[in-house]
Amino acid sequence: MSILFLLVGLGLILSGANFLTDGAAALAKRFNISSLVIGLTIVAFGTSAPELTVSIVSAINGSAELSIGNVVGSNIFNILMIVGVTAVVAPITITKGTLTKEIPLAILSCVVVLICANDVFLETGTENILNRADGLLMLCFFAIFLGYTFAIAHDNTGEEQAEIRPLSTWRCLLYIVGGLVALIFGGRLFVDGSSEIARSLGVGESVIGLTLVAMGTSLPELATSVVAALKKNPEIAIGNVIGSNLFNVFFVLGMSATITPLPLGGITNVDLFYLLAVSLLLFFAGRYYKVRTITRVEGVFMIFAYVVYTGYLIYML
Predict the structure, then answer these.
(1) What 3-state class would DSSP assign to 85?
(2) What is the Cα–Cα distance from 88 to 74, expressed in whole angstroms?
(3) Residues facing 178 on adjacent strands
(4) Angle 178-164-15 (CA atoms, 0-180°, nearest 5)?
(5) 33 has pLDDT over 70
(6) Looking at residues 297-302, what average pLDDT do you find?
């Protein structure tokens, strides 16, 4: 029954995110909001909606390790597996702006989590916990990121507009409401199922969050990036991954910690430093080996790095 809950919940989450994104994008288009702004905000929210739903529901249910592990694990999966697989399909060309602005912002988000999560080491508390102050700080960073995003959109209004399927207003609203309902119920089923599986196997929720839940909630990003690569437009993968990672840390984790403090539990500095390391790897891979290009060789290395990390988690059980 737990596996059924997990699969049904995941299906509702993915379909809900798809309907929510389509409805919101079409509604925004009807009000003449630029496609670029839609892509940088609504579509980014849509692909990260599974992480948002699972993390908030987990936080409310008292499964803090699942909530944090979902974000950290998803971000590691996004960089190593999504970028890695996409680069194997087709080498990824990175724009100069992404290399000098967006990727450093993603690295900054890792540093923020490291600082906020190390209360014991920094002698600011008796246990490592993301409290409401940490959550509000992350939401402030998210507001700054949104301001930057709109500034970039304003500076690039002449770019080619993305194709968005037109919908009537009532269908837009139906898609949005239906998507939100599917996300809420799917998120609850997914968290209940994964938590029960963790308990039955004697596996900590932190490991489940870092692996199974992270992989499941990252499926929209993976699908988007692989399809982009098959359409000979693999550079979209970088924007998709970086935007999702920033959204996951600054908004998803920030919102979850604001709702209720999140003790780190089984999430350790090994996981947080590994996230920082793979973010740096993404920067150096694009910067030095072949200028502003993630090659197939680098893609294979990234996939291998994810397999090693997963093996480490299994070994530590």
Answers:
(1) helix
(2) 20
(3) none
(4) 30
(5) no
(6) 93
Q: Tokens in use for 102?
A: 């967006």
- From the list 309, 314, 297, 315, the residue with the least C-alpha distance to 92 is 297
pLDDT band at 130 (very low <50, low <70, confident <90, very high): very high
Of 70, 46, 47, 45, the C-alpha closest to 57 is 70
Measured between alpha carbons, how far is 207 from 1 in angstroms, rounded to an integer?
21
**C-alpha distances in Å from residue 276, one per residue of 57, 136, 156:** 26, 21, 30
Q: Give which of 31, 61, 53 is closest to 180, Cα–Cα.
A: 53
CA-to-CA distance for 46 and 14, rounded, in angstroms? 9
| 3-state DSSP assignment of residue 164 | coil
Domains and CATH numbers, the chain: 39-157+203-315 (1.20.1420.30)
Instruction: Quote the CA–CA distance of 209 and 69 in Å, as a whole number.
Output: 4
Distant-in-sequence, close-in-space partners of 207: CB < 8 Å, separation ≥ 6: 69, 198, 266, 313, 316, 317
Mean pLDDT, residues 292-303: 90
Residue count of the chain, please give it. Answer: 317
| CB contact at 8 A, 144 and 252 | no
Residue 17 near residue 179 (C-beta atoms within 8 A): yes
pTM reported for the whole predicted model: 0.80
